[in-house]
């Protein structure tokens, strides 16, 4: 980071930033946050933003509209970080781990609302054996697997009903059922919007069918959605049709560091260390698009270098002088963000905020 | 990290570590460092270890045999980190960037030896126009492209000789030619040892031919090698035949967090956030092997979850209780290490050191 402290970049023009740099457009971030809140209001759903894409206090503050209440985290490191940052009503979206129960137990004591997932009777037994002191209760979501095939109990499994009943009615003074949780991760395999809608519809139907088959009032309706990626969006979401291209707030700023005319290539100072290899199943060109230059293709990615060619082989080197910057639109924002210790938020071409994500587990 | 400070894990048995965790076997690390030093001694070559895989003071101390002299770095963040950590004789293996010249200039002043790469007359001109004060000189390696096709000037290009001559003979009081640099990154595309040896042989021949065609004494022989990955090694290097399986020092420790018998799967608490997606071109199973269980296959990787199946569908769930640990051998150590804020070094089953890598640029 240029030997300067991060904060010394506040006010700097983007072109002066040391590259590669993760940059976020503030207006786009704000628009994405506002649109999602509006959409949820219109649907009568509570929005509980997932923070795993950005992992920053600033991003979660924006997503919660400043309330700092009601988020989803994917790791205990995130849970502690956001709790320490003044957030509450935190759902740890992971089947509660016996070997880290002490940490969950501390968070359950410390926060007004710390919620966990359950998908097994063993998990419930664990909570019942380790009550939260001070008149507090374990707050539990039953994790259903509605076709995603990762964690969760299948709603058609007879044990699912038994577990829901046990959670809801077993020892309400110790464990309270907050809701039923499902994740449509299988939509990432979809090629178009109707396919995504079909999965969302199937998931909703499966959850509602399960809830209808079961009498406890806590499970009466779909009440919350937990989107995560929407604050940044990315090339993948834009290709899936989840967002418009102009709603993608994230870029990796990179510089042209060399001209290699004999092979028709520009060399960039952005490799997989700044971008990740997500999207690269069929080669590096899937990992990012070059903003404003649809004919440029990323054809190579090593740790700290990227190689760019023109689609038709006709690269106009004079348009891309050594030292000039390009903005890469990454395929998968969660993966790209994980590579950066700081994000530069900009408005009108200048750095206006620095966001620092939490790491680790 | 379990809410505890990292150092509180010193002495802890590996099985108690919060997972996922990057673990390194100390005896294997030491063996790898010693063997590479021995090999270089036998070949009469100086070993200048590349630190980009581990990015830690401790790893570089081990690789330099405690001298803390003579390393290669890939970013200026690394250069500053190692300079502050007492290292000197640092080669910044990147064509010297005009827009970050001030940082290079500071390092050139601060260190006894700070070396940079050049592959263009413009780069040389830049250094000549910005002399290092105090009687010091810019120390320069000419970067050749011997078939790798990334940075560098081709040795057969007439401009290469002209540039070498200009560096070596132009203004020796300002800029000194230290050597000629080539990187056989193209060996990663090789399927067997003879193919790798052929590329190494071609690269060596190209460099020596170039050097022989040019009269300056500084370029009289191949003098240094700059390996990077060998301290950790990984599944890829083991598959390429660059190391024996028992020489791979790196693992990601993970826990079984669920049994999904209806689909014959274990769920792990290690996703791409702890492993990267490197090696996954043909699916997640390329990203890591499960140590000691050759029939287990990684069939799914999301941000924080991994899914494992048995090759023949016959998974013995009793062997892998929920909460038990597995060790994953990652495909690409550089990429996996980049995902972790701390590495746990172990000996005889206990944590004996904690290494903290530098990040960013």
Automatic annotation (TrEMBL), chains A, B:
GO terms for biological process: D-serine catabolic process. Keywords: Lyase. It comes from Hirundo rustica rustica. Gene3D superfamilies: Alanine racemase, D-serine dehydratase-like domain. Pfam families: Ala_racemase_N, D-ser_dehydrat. GO terms for molecular function: D-serine ammonia-lyase activity. InterPro entries: Ala_racemase_N, D-amino_acid_metab_enzyme, D-ser_dehydrat-like_dom, D-ser_dehydrat-like_sf, PLP-binding_barrel. Belongs to the DSD1 family. The keyword Oxidoreductase does not apply. It comes from the Eukaryota. This is D-serine dehydratase-like domain-containing protein. Residues 249-347 form the D-serine dehydratase-like domain.
């Amino acid at each position: 980071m240029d030997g300067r402290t991060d904060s010394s970049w506040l006010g700097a023009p983007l072109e002066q930033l040391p590259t590669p740099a993760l940059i976020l457009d503030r207006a786009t971030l704000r628009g994405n946050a506002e649109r999602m809140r509006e959409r949820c209001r219109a649907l009568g759903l509570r929005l509980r933003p997932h923070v795993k894409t950005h992992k920053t206090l600033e991003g979660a503050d924006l997503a919660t509209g400043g309330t700092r209440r009601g988020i989803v985290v994917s790791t205990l490191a995130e849970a502690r970080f956001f709790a320490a940052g003044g957030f509450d009503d935190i759902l740890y979206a992971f089947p509660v781990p016996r070997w880290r129960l002490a940490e969950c137990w501390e968070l359950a004591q410390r926060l007004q609302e710390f919620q966990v997932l359950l998908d097994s009777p063993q998990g419930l037994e664990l909570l019942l054996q380790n009550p939260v002191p001070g008149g507090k209760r374990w707050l539990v979501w039953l994790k259903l697997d509605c076709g995603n095939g990762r964690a969760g109990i299948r709603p058609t499994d007879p044990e699912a009903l038994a577990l829901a009943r046990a959670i809801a009615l077993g020892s309400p003074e110790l464990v309270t059922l907050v809701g039923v949780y499902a994740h449509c991760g299988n939509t990432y395999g979809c090629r178009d919007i109707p396919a995504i809608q079909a999965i969302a519809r199937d998931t909703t139907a499966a959850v509602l069918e399960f809830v209808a088959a079961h009498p406890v009032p806590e499970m009466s309706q779909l009440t919350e959605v937990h989107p995560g990626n929407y604050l940044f969006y990315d090339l993948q979401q834009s290709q899936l049709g989840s967002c418009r291209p102009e709603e993608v707030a994230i870029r990796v700023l990179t510089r042209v560091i060399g001209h290699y005319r004999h092979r028709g290539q520009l060399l960039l100072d952005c490799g997989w260390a700044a971008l990740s290899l997500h999207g690269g199943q069929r080669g590096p060109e899937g990992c990012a698009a070059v903003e404003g230059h649809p004919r440029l293709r990323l054809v190579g990615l090593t740790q700290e270098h990227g190689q760019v060619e023109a689609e038709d082989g006709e690269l106009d080197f004079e348009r891309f002088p050594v030292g000039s910057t390009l903005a890469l639109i990454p395929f998968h924002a969660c993966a790209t963000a994980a590579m950066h210790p700081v994000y530069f938020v900009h408005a009108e071409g200048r750095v206006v905020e620095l966001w620092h994500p939490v790491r680790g587990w």
